[in-house]
UniProtKB/TrEMBL annotation:
Pfam families: zf-MYND
Lineage summary: Eukaryota, Fungi, Dikarya, Basidiomycota, Agaricomycotina
Keyword Lipid metabolism found: no
Annotated keywords: Metal-binding, Zinc, Zinc-finger
InterPro entries recorded: Znf_MYND
Descriptive protein name: MYND-type domain-containing protein
Organism: Auricularia subglabra (strain TFB-10046 / SS5) (White-rot fungus)
GO MF term set: zinc ion binding
All residue ranges annotated as the MYND-type domain in the record: 287-337
Superkingdom assignment: Eukaryota
Length: 420
């Protein structure tokens, strides 16, 4: 990992001899003929790329199995063997992510993408720290767009029967999409600034690539097309607020399917409150360490949290953040605290959807009041990405979104009745 994650932006890609020497300098056997021979062979760019690919395959085999249960719980444990801690994966610090991105740009092999994905999952606090820097986010966008563009060209060539096409091109695109889809999945609860990774037109370009790729994927690989549609739903949320109208029909159907079990706006509202109650960062919009999950600096999750004693939903990193949020200029918690408290008196977010819906009715939470709560809880994340002048219209936009969720639910109920 020291070799894979070393900053080599100043080194020519065709000659990595001095980088190799730096990596093995501390080895007690660095004077052996075998070591000298290995270092000498790194003068070949092709050999270097082969070595990196092989190292990535070895690293990927050392990780514990990535299960659906661990992804759902957002917990990835280190084992007793290597890697046993975050320092094993990022021995040179957070900038190791930039080095891994560079290999993705240079090497057309999905093993390197898998390595970056695994390091992200196991070392998310380090990822969030590194990509708070605008230069790192720009590098991320450059690499991802280049990687997608290459995979799409290969997919187009493969679909047309060209000799330059590769049968695994759709799988390569899916591997990159898997990595991208983890960012919003985890970022919604851990890193509010995840939207910035897709700024500067990146989300729109990725959407154009995804929409071009989906029709080219063969029927026997339908799950890959479905995965791309899932990514498109997340990317639409980065492009504009009213993203339902801009979705392609097949992506909108995928969105409908995902929301079938949500029972309209009440189910979505229930999920939002569950995420708010379980998220691992401070709820204050102006928190100076809002991008740092609890325990990210100390290595454990025992860092003290301060939960609102009234609504019992929002938590803070300090009493000062809690006091500031209570009287925040745009999102004062005092505006919604009593409503959330009344709601909890009837049902908690963990209740089933029918009981939760009845609790919302009992607490007089209509669609307008619900939109106000949405704006208060997550409006800062939307406005930080969009124009702050939209704030006064944000409640109206939230009303439209919530009504659209009800339409989705009603649409599916009608379809199910027809099929029955």
């Amino acid at each position: 990992m020291a070799f894979l994650t070393r900053d080599r932006s100043g080194a020519p890609s065709s000659a990595l001899e001095h980088v190799s020497r730096a990596v093995i300098h501390a080895c007690p056997f660095n004077s052996s003929p075998l070591h000298r021979r290995c270092v000498a062979t790194y003068a070949s760019a092709d050999c270097s790329f082969t070595v990196v690919t092989s190292l990535s395959l070895v690293v990927n085999d050392c990780f514990p199995t990535l299960s659906n249960r661990s992804v759902a719980a957002k917990k990835f444990k280190f084992g007793s063997a290597w890697p046993a801690r975050a320092q094993d994966l990022l021995p040179l610090g957070c900038q190791g992510f930039l080095a891994l991105l560079r290999w993705i740009l240079l090497i057309d092999h999905m093993s390197v993408v898998v390595t970056l994905t695994r390091v992200y999952l196991w070392c998310r606090p380090a990822f969030y720290t590194e990509f708070e820097k605008s230069s790192s986010r720009e590098w991320f966008r450059t690499v991802i767009l280049s990687r997608y563009r290459l995979s799409l060209s290969q997919l187009v060539a493969s679909a047309s029967g060209s000799a330059t096409g590769t049968p695994e091109s759709s799988l390569n695109m899916c591997t990159v999409s898997t990595m991208l889809s983890f960012i919003p999945d985890f970022g919604r609860d851990e890193w509010p600034m995840w939207l910035r990774l897709f700024d500067d037109g990146c989300a729109a370009q990725l959407l154009s690539f995804v929409y071009t790729a989906i029709p080219l994927i063969s029927e026997e690989r339908a799950p890959i097309a479905a995965h791309l549609r899932d990514l498109a739903v997340d990317l639409h949320g980065c492009v504009n607020i009213d993203y339902f109208g801009s979705m392609a029909p097949d992506v909108l159907r995928r969105f409908d399917e995902d929301n079938l079990s949500s029972c309209g706006r009440f189910g979505h509202f229930k999920s939002l409150l569950e995420r708010v109650a379980s998220r691992r960062f401070c709820s204050a919009p102006d928190c100076p360490v809002v991008n740092e999950p609890y325990g990210s600096t100390s290595g454990n999750d025992s860092q003290r949290r301060f939960r609102c004693g009234s609504c019992r939903l929002l938590q803070y990193c300090s009493r000062e953040c809690q006091r500031r949020h209570w009287r925040n200029a745009l999102q004062p918690h005092r505006d919604v605290c009593s409503t959330l408290r009344d709601l909890r008196e009837h049902a908690t977010p963990e209740a089933d959807v029918r009981k939760f819906r009845a609790a919302c009715v009992a607490a007089n939470i209509d669609v307008r009041r619900m939109a106000v709560i949405y704006t208060n809880l997550i409006g800062d994340r939307v406005i930080k990405h969009y124009d702050r002048e939209l704030w006064h219209n944000l409640v109206d936009q939230m009303v439209l979104m919530l009504e659209a969720l009800d339409h989705v639910s009603e649409h599916h109920v009608a379809l199910r009745q027809q099929s029955a």
